């Protein structure tokens, strides 16, 4: 294997691949990139942690085809320090790889490319085409609600539902639920509903890939019994392929959790509410982050107190005409939602003081979002 490539083009691909590589792994080969130089003037780079596999391609001056497994973190750290110039790669004996850039010359100890895990095979069936920008935007509105508890495996990802004219994403950690639906999308290649559980890490990497995709482009989605496959377009006409191992298990019946009857509602200004929450939460319990909402005609008062820190309260003027209500919420949960709401006002909907609260963004977006938070006793 021997080729040369511009540093900027190489770093663009390496930065995308790095999100897949785990720093600690029991299999040394997984800490490497597989670099393959082809006779078509392209190099292919691949990274995997056995759950996710990402393949990217970029143009290069290929002198000799072949492949090598190069230590991922060492390669990225070293290439970052090189000047903006062309870098040459050459595979040597005993799995060494030589890098030259100007006066800089190094030899890295790699591994045999043959030991690198194979990329999962892409299904032969025609793919579904999903607007990339809409998917990335919707991922941002649910990813924060995914559970980080490894014991709740089916909550470690988001449910994605594709329909002929709609895309829906749902995530929950058991304490809150984020639900976003867009029914104004015409999804090519989707004849019946497709349901998939997408792991959190895959959603993070997918958003990064979409950020590099051409504006107003669509990605291709396929699935089989073992993997989900996303092919994200690149400006040169090629694509970056992300393969994700299917999550097993049943996602909770989220439709049963969505509030059906909320007689009390109150529009709230996002910026003012977020600012008040951040200040009042400074005096909330460090574990529960509990803040009390006291709704009265024309007023919302936020309060918190602890023996160790003291107490705080802030009052907001609001358009509320219902009966007085007191309900507690986790301030951190609400702030994470407000940070991605993407609007000036949200509508708080309540049934009573013991039932979950529902927040809806008030905007003209095609995304129909709703955020459900369980109440707290404060």
Describe the structure.
This protein has six helices and 25 strands. It starts with a strand and ends in a 5-residue tail after the last strand. The model has no long low-confidence stretch (mean pLDDT about 95).
Please describe the structure with a list of short key phrases separated by commas or semicolons:
378 residues, alpha+beta, DNA Polymerase III, Chain A, domain 2, 8-stranded antiparallel β-sheet, elongated
Helix content: 10-25%
User: Structural class, judged by helices and strands?
Assistant: alpha+beta
Assigned CATH architecture of the largest domain: Roll
Count the beta strands.
Answer: 25
What value does the Rg take, in angstroms?
Answer: 25 Å
Whole-number total of structural domains: 3
Task: Give the strand line-up of the largest sheet.
Answer: 6-2-3-4-17-16-15-10
Mean pLDDT: 95
Portion in beta strands: 35-45%
Instruction: Name the CATH homologous superfamily of the largest domain.
Output: DNA Polymerase III, subunit A, domain 2
Query: Which spans of ≥5 residues are poorly predicted at pLDDT below 50?
Result: none
Ends apart, CA distance between termini: 65 Å
Topology:
Layout: E1 2-6, H1 7-18, E2 32-37, E3 42-48, E4 52-59, E5 61-64, E6 66-71, H2 72-80, E7 86-91, E8 96-101, E9 104-109, E10 128-131, H3 132-140, E11 157-163, E12 166-172, E13 176-182, E14 194-199, H4 200-211, E15 218-223, E16 227-233, E17 239-245, E18 264-269, H5 270-280, E19 290-296, E20 299-306, E21 310-317, E22 325-330, H6 331-340, E23 345-350, E24 357-362, E25 368-373
Antiparallel strand pairs: 1-5, 1-7, 2-3, 2-6, 3-4, 4-17, 7-8, 8-9, 10-15, 11-12, 11-14, 12-13, 13-25, 15-16, 16-17, 18-23, 19-20, 19-22, 20-21, 23-24, 24-25
Helix pairs in contact: 1-2, 3-4, 5-6
């Amino acid at each position: 294997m021997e080729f040369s490539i511009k540093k900027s083009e190489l770093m663009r691909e390496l930065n995308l691949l790095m999100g897949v590589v785990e720093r600690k792994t029991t299999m040394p080969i997984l800490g490497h990139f597989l670099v393959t130089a082809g006779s078509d003037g392209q190099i292919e780079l691949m990274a995997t942690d056995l759950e996710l596999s990402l393949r990217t391609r970029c143009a290069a001056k290929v002198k000799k085809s072949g492949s090598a497994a190069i230590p991922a973190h060492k390669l990225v750290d070293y290439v970052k320090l090189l000047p903006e110039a062309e870098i040459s790669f050459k595979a040597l004996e005993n799995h060494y790889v030589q890098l030259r850039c100007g006066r800089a010359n190094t030899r890295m100890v790699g591994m045999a490319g043959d030991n690198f895990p194979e990329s999962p095979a892409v299904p032969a069936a025609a793919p579904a085409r999903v607007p990339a920008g809409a998917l990335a935007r919707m991922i941002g509105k649910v990813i924060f609600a995914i559970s980080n508890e490894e014991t709740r495996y089916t909550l470690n990802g988001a449910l994605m539902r594709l329909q002929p004219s709609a895309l829906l994403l749902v995530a929950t950690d058991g304490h809150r639920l984020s639900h976003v639906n867009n029914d104004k999308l015409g999804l090519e290649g989707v004849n019946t509903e497709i349901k998939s559980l997408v792991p959190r890490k895959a959603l993070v990497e997918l958003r990064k890939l979409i950020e590099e995709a051409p504006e107003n482009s669509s990605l291709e989605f396929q699935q089989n019994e073992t993997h989900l496959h996303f092919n994200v377009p690149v400006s040169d006409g090629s694509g970056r392929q992300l393969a994700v191992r299917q999550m097993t298990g049943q996602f909770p019946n989220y439709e049963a959790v969505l509030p059906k009857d909320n007689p009390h509602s109150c529009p709230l200004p996002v910026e003012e509410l977020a600012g008040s929450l951040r200040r009042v939460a400074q005096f909330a319990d460090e574990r529960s982050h509990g803040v009390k909402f006291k709704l009265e005609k024309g007023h919302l008062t936020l309060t918190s107190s602890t023996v160790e820190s003291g107490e705080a309260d802030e009052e907001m003027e609001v358009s509320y005409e219902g009966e007085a209500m007191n309900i507690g919420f986790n301030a951190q949960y609400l702030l994470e939602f407000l940070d991605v709401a993407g609007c000036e006002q949200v509508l708080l909907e309540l049934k009573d003081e013991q039932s979950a609260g529902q927040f809806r963004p008030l905007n003209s977006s095609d995304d129909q979002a709703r955020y459900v938070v369980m109440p707290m006793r404060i």
